[in-house]
Inverse folding.
């Protein structure tokens, strides 16, 4: 039987614009291509700007990952200008970034990923009393009564009965890949709605410290929110109490709703622990500096490192100089030709579209098929994200991670090899959310202890004025974002940005084939023992792609459209 | 606070009837409508109109297309409190197309869009986030193999009105900052034969978006706009004139450096670059995220994100606005604010500009704005 061509475009319930093409034979995917179809050119726009403004521009790379580019940018500029931020600012950034993780992962699970596993229409058949018993057996969450689940069911029933299905129109309801009993479906639907209210509340932590969300404010040198317990317009006891309450409510939802739901749903889909592994290398750059300064890379809560070939007995060191980007399959050109790879310090990107005129039917016959470049570490494709962090921490002997991973594997009755899969990526996201929800309290306590001791500093202004800067400097800012390892590279000349480059989590994961023909992680995962029952209803593709939590706007960027760099600084 | 939290209603039953059936009294329903009317500045007659409009028997169709963007505007709307996003999607409208939230992908998603546009032709509300890249025949953003421009043009055809949410849909935002490599423009630069309203901001405050939707559903038309196409109920006043730190400004109490003694007293951020004097925005009034705080309230200067071209006109962000010092300071920045408001008009007729300024003057906010010279461009010579 000849292969069937499959196109899924748009992939919905992600950030940005992603197209997946595949070929399927006998219910399995035999080949796959991931194509990013949006390009904005933000790095070009950075040139000639004030480096202290950079965080705000690059923050707009993504409004879902609204913290990560801003902080990575501040770190890069602070590295270039040799700025050490006060410990309070470091802790506040950890709290803000920690809440970003927690909120983002919960939204991903319920609002972006759940409908791949949860059949909303089936929830109408549930016995609310049965759902109540199920929920109570899993968790002490107060909204576990049959009355509550009946109310939710009535709501959905009337919604469906209205004939206006809105966001649920044309969903793959009734597909045989859905395995949950109606009672579990109803529980998940109820929590889908509760999570919508929860996320709006807990994200206000960003508003306290950064003035708004999305796109809270940051500051090179620290944070702009001054601490003064005796004033109405500053971070005072009232604001801090609000923060502490949000941390408590965030942790409670994660431990009593998200984590139990994740385990309950996963237990019905254990076959997905043998599907969608793909790329066998994992990179984590590490995150959450607990030593007060990002330069202390051995004091990161999530450690950095590399796992190669699914081998958990050894963690290799991460060296940012081994990162190169390739464009063999991407709509760009390099002066040295398509075979060459460039490190971000010397990276260059000239968009050159060579695809067919719109509207397209297929891109899979094209040599170049995406706006995404192909980053490689020491020549190898790498997965990044929650699973990479979990594996690196687990293999490094990280106590909290070993306990949390062990608990999940034990409850599901599977071994560590189950982690290398679609289900593994989804489980790892939940595991790290639990760890962070607990860790937030420790960071908050650190902040309070320091304020008690009289240290309220939030900003270091020593190198604020451009007159104090060297004529040329360059900095590297790393950050392990919810979706994975992120790097910003900035070069500054005469007070202005001369070059700006980002290598982003979704660029790693959504990368196309490189010059050796090695596919990127999305593509490799779709080709790893991957079912596709009905190409008209590609729910299996959505499961695996969503397990990566794609963020396409993050992934595509360009340094320099015309090659008109202000300066070329080569670093060896 | 009160909103109709649960229970969508079905055909043949009005929302108010349905809510009553599920335990929400008529009085509470009217209270909900009043809170909307308050946001929209409509008073008690407005509340009655909203109540009447929400007692329809079919949820109005909303189609939301996402073009060249960062999804921050979608995230912002998801944080809406009055109504909540759950209430909006399940009770108040029929959101038939939304990349971020919809269950279906690929062909099934595109079919949902096509079917809804056909079934609701001429009646649906089109929400747009993201800009339209025009360079290289639009190749810099495609969905389903078609360009953002094609998709916008097609979905606009049957729309009753268009709500352009956020700075990208308004004028292009960050990707349109110099040198605008992809030729990004806003909705109004592409669609000229439909009413378009700009909910300005990067991103805008969620409640402004939902209030505009409710306004349209209630009155069958978009709310009154300023010359920039922004709803006046939200963008009718400068930050500087509504700012709680205005007293510090008037008294000459300024933050000179971040985290200095003045910053720890919560004084005015003008000297560390605040663009509040040139920015028309609801931030100080509505505030952010269920009125938790707002940028200036958390110690950071305003970057002017509700104004067109702000990435170029308002940066460097930490540089104080020009022409400062001693006596006359307020007059100068007032002039600049008014000039930006007018200068941003681009091709819009001078008449409209003067009408806008006239309305601003009539509003008599905390301080009277200066009278502008009688010419199309303000003294600052446009947006540049």
């Amino acid at each position: 039987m000849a292969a069937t061509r499959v196109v899924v475009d748009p992939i919905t319930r992600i950030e940005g614009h992603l197209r997946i093409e595949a070929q399927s034979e006998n219910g399995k995917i035999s080949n796959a291509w991931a194509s990013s179809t949006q390009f904005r050119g933000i790095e070009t726009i950075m040139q000639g700007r004030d480096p202290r403004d950079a965080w705000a521009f690059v923050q707009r790379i993504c409004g879902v990952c609204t913290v990560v580019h801003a902080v990575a940018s501040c770190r890069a500029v602070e590295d270039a200008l040799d700025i050490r931020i006060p410990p309070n600012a470091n802790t506040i950034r950890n709290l803000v970034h920690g809440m970003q993780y927690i909120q983002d992962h919960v939204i991903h699970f319920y609002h972006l990923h759940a409908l791949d596993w949860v059949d909303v229409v089936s929830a109408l058949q549930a016995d609310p009393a049965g759902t109540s018993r199920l929920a109570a057996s899993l968790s002490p969450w107060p909204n576990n009564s049959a009355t509550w689940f009946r109310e939710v069911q009535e709501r959905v029933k009337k919604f469906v009965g209205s004939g206006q299905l809105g966001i649920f129109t044309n969903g793959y309801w009734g597909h045989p890949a859905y395995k949950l009993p109606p009672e579990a479906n109803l529980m998940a639907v109820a929590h889908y709605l509760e999570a919508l209210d929860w996320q709006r509340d807990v994200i206000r932590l960003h508003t306290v410290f950064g003035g708004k969300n999305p796109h809270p404010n940051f500051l090179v040198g620290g944070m702009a929110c001054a601490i003064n317990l005796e004033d109405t317009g500053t971070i005072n006891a009232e604001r801090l109490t609000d923060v502490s309450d949000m941390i408590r409510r965030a942790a409670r939802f994660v431990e009593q709703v998200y984590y139990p739901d994740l385990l309950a749903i996963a237990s019905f889909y254990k076959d997905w622990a043998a599907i969608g592994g793909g790329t066998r290398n994992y990179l984590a750059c590490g995150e959450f500096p607990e030593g007060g300064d990002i330069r202390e890379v051995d004091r990161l809560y999530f450690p950095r490192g590399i796992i190669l070939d699914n081998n958990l007995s050894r963690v290799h060191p991460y060296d940012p100089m081994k990162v190169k980007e390739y464009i063999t399959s991407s709509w760009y050109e390099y002066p040295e030709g398509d075979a060459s790879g460039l490190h971000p310090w010397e990276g260059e990107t000239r968009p050159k579209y060579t695809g067919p005129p719109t509207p397209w039917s297929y891109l899979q016959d094209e040599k170049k098929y995406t706006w995404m470049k192909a980053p490689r570490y020491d020549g190898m494709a790498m997965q990044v994200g929650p699973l990479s962090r979990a594996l690196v921490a687990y293999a490094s002997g990280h106590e909290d991670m070993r306990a949390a991973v062990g608990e999940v594997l034990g409850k599901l009755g599977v071994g560590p090899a189950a982690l290398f899969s679609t289900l593994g990526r989804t489980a790892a996201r939940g595991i790290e959310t639990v760890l962070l929800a607990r860790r937030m309290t420790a960071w908050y306590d650190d902040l309070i202890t320091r304020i008690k001791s009289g240290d309220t500093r939030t900003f270091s202004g020593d190198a604020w004025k451009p007159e104090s800067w060297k004529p040329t400097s360059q900095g590297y800012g790393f950050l392990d974002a919810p979706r994975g390892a992120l790097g910003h590279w900035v070069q500054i000349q005469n007070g202005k940005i001369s070059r700006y480059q980002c290598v982003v989590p979704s660029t790693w994961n959504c990368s196309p084939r490189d010059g050796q023909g090695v596919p990127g992680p999305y593509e490799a995962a779709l080709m790893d023992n991957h079912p596709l029952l009905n190409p008209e209803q590609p729910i299996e593709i959505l499961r695996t792609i969503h397990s990566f939590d794609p963020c396409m706007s993050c992934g595509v960027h360009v340094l320099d459209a015309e090659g008109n760099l202000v300066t070329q600084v080569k670093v060896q | 606070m009160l909103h109709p939290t649960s229970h969508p209603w079905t055909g043949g039953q009005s929302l108010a009837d349905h809510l009553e059936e599920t335990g929400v009294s008529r009085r509470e329903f009217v209270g909900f409508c009043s809170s909307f009317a308050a946001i929209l500045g409509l008073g008690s007659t407005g509340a009655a109109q909203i109540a009447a409009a929400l007692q329809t028997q079919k949820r109005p169709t909303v189609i939301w297309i996402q073009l060249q963007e960062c999804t921050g505007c979608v995230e912002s709307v998801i944080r809406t409190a009055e109504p909540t996003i759950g209430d909006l999607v399940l009770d108040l409208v029929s959101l038939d197309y939304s990349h971020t939230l919809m269950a279906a992908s690929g062909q099934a998603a595109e079919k949902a869009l096509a079917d809804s546009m056909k079934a609701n032709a001429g009646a649906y509300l089109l929400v747009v986030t993201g800009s339209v890249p025009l360079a290289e025949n639009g190749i810099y953003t495609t969905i389903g193999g078609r360009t953002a421009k094609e998709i916008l043009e097609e979905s606009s055809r049957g729309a009753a009105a268009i709500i352009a949410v956020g700075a990208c849909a308004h004028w292009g935002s960050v990707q349109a900052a110099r040198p605008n490599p992809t030729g990004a423009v806003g909705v109004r630069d592409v669609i000229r034969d439909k009413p378009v309203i700009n909910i300005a901001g990067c991103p805008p405050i969620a409640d402004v978006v939902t209030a505009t939707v409710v306004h349209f559903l209630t009155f069958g038309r978009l709310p009154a706009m300023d010359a920039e196409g922004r709803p006046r109920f939200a963008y009718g006043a400068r930050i500087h004139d509504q700012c709680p730190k205005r007293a510090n400004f008037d008294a000459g109490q300024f933050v000179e450096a971040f985290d200095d003694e003045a910053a720890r007293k919560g004084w005015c951020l003008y000297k560390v670059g605040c663009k509040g004097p040139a920015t028309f925005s609801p931030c100080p009034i509505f505030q952010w995220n269920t009125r938790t705080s707002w940028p200036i309230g958390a110690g950071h200067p305003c970057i002017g994100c509700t104004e067109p071209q702000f990435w170029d006109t308002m940066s460097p962000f930490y540089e104080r606005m020009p022409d400062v010092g001693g006596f006359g300071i307020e007059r100068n920045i007032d002039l600049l604010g008014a000039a930006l408001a007018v200068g941003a008009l681009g091709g819009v007729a001078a008449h409209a500009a003067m009408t806008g300024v006239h309305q601003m003057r009539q509003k008599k906010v905390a301080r009277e704005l200066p009278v502008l010279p009688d010419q199309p461009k303000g003294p600052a010579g446009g947006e540049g």
Observations:
- Confidence is low (pLDDT under 50) at residues 1-11, 324-329, 341-384 of chain B.
- Residues 128 and 196 of chain B are 10 Å apart (CA to CA).
- The domain at 235-363 of chain B is CATH 4.10.480.10 (Cytochrome-c3 Hydrogenase; Chain A, domain 2).
- The longest strand of chain B covers residues 159-165.
